[in-house]
């Protein structure tokens, strides 16, 4: 799970990261990236994707509310946003929610409450609670068997592919975000790589093998498209049933 945190107080930064990593461990691998000004995060959001944004209101350069307005106006990928601020007036909370925040927590936060709210936002953002089986059109992912199946016709034999752990993590992330661009760093981290050290061609090699193995193309309901300078997008054919 990738979480971006907009917070300019070093003490709060450390507390947030420690709380999220400790309390969410077991749910997923949690990676937190901290930003102390809004412009810095905005630049990264133009090319990167996250599972959740935690925004403080009062930060330099571009504050949390301004960044939230930009996100909801210009970004097609609707990433969940939790506002975390010392501003606790009723009007402030109402304004943030009206601007598109998914939740609002007043500082000082309570760790267990924050954990529960983050879990809910991430689950809702990926289509609900974690499921063993997930279907898009004629494709079905089975997390227990780490496999993906394709059914060409109702009476046809099911085509099943058992995937490696890395392959399944990549496929699952893309299938959780149909029609959305998933950044290269996000995909590499999902596959268990340290993006700072891993060559970019590693991801391209994985995607190439997945395309060939699964024969992902529009004729089979879903196709995998490279988005220049950003990452990959799983396109779902219009006639594919969800």
Give the key terms.
8 helices; 2 domains; 22% strand; 242 residues; Arc Repressor Mutant, subunit A
Give the distance, in angstroms, between the N- and C-terminal Cα atoms.
24 Å
Q: Based on the structure, what is the oligomeric state of the protein chains? A: single chain
Structural domain tally: 2
Q: Which strands sit side by side, in order, in the main sheet? A: 2-1-3-4-5
The CATH homologous superfamily of the largest domain: Response regulator
Q: Give the CATH topology of the largest domain.
A: Rossmann fold
Level-1 CATH class name of the largest domain: Alpha Beta
Shape: elongated
Tell me the strand percentage band. Answer: 15-25%
Detail the poorly predicted runs: none
Radius of gyration: 19 Å
Keywords: DNA-binding, Phosphoprotein, Two-component regulatory system
Pfam family, one: Response_reg
InterPro entries: CheY-like_superfamily, OmpR/PhoB-type_DNA-bd, Sig_transdc_resp-reg_C-effctor, Sig_transdc_resp-reg_receiver, WalR-like, WH-like_DNA-bd_sf
Domain Response regulatory: 2-122
Task: Describe the protein's architecture and organization.
With 242 residues, this protein is of the alpha/beta class. It has 2 domains: 2-125, 3-Layer(aba) Sandwich (Rossmann fold); 133-236, Orthogonal Bundle (Arc Repressor Mutant, subunit A), CATH 1.10.10.10. It has helices at 10-24, 38-45, 64-74, 90-99, 111-125, 165-175, 184-190, 200-214; strands at residues 2-6, 31-35, 52-55, 81-85, 103-106, 133-136, 139-142, 147-150, 159-162, 181-183, 222-227, 231-236. Helix 1 crosses helix 5 (111-125). It is elongated and about 60 Å long. The two termini are 24 Å apart. The mean pLDDT is 86.
């Amino acid at each position: 799970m990738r979480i971006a945190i907009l917070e300019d107080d070093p003490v709060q930064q450390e507390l947030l990261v420690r709380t999220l990593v400790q309390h969410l461990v077991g749910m997923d691998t949690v990676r937190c990236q901290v930003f102390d000004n809004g412009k810095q995060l905005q630049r990264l959001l133009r090319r990167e994707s996250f599972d959740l944004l935690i925004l403080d209101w009062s930060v330099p350069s571009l504050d949390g509310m301004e960044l939230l307005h930009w996100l909801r106006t210009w970004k097609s990928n609707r990433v969940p946003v939790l506002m975390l601020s010392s501003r606790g007036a009723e009007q402030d909370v109402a304004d943030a929610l009206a601007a598109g925040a998914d939740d609002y927590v007043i500082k000082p936060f309570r760790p267990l409450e924050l954990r529960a709210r983050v879990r809910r936002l991430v689950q809702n953002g990926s289509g609900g609670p974690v499921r063993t089986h997930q279907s898009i059109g004629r494709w079905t992912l089975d997390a227990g068997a780490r496999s993906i199946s394709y059914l060409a016709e109702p009476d046809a034999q099911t085509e099943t592919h058992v995937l490696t752990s890395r392959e399944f993590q990549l496929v699952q992330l893309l299938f959780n975000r149909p029609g959305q661009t998933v950044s290269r760093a996000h995909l590499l981290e999902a596959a268990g790589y340290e993006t700072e050290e891993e060559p970019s061609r590693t991801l391209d090699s994985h995607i190439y093998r997945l395309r060939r193995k699964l024969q992902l193309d529009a004729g089979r309901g879903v196709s995998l498209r490279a988005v220049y300078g950003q990452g990959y997008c799983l396109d779902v054919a219009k006639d594919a049933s969800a």
